[in-house]
Amino acid sequence: MSFVGKVLVVTQLVLSVLFMALAGAVFAVHTNWKTAYEKQDAIIKGAQKSVSDMQSELDSVKQASQKVVDDNKAEMDLLKNTVQTQVQQIEALTKKNNEDQQELQTQTALAEIKTKESVFRIAEADEQRAANRALQASLDQTAAKVRELEDQKFGLEVEYGNLRNKAEEDQLKLAYLEKLARKMGLETDPKKAAKLEEPPPPVEGLVKSLKKDRANQVRMIEISIGSDDGLIVGHKLDVLRTGVNGKPAKWLGKVKVISIEPDYAVCEVMREDTPPNGIIEVGDNVTTKL
Amino acid sequence: MSQRSSEDPQPDVYVGLLFVSLAAVITGIIFLVIELNRYGMLFSK
Question: Which of A8, A124, A254, A284 could form an SS bridge with A270, CB 3.0 to 4.6 Å?
Answer without folding.
Answer: A254
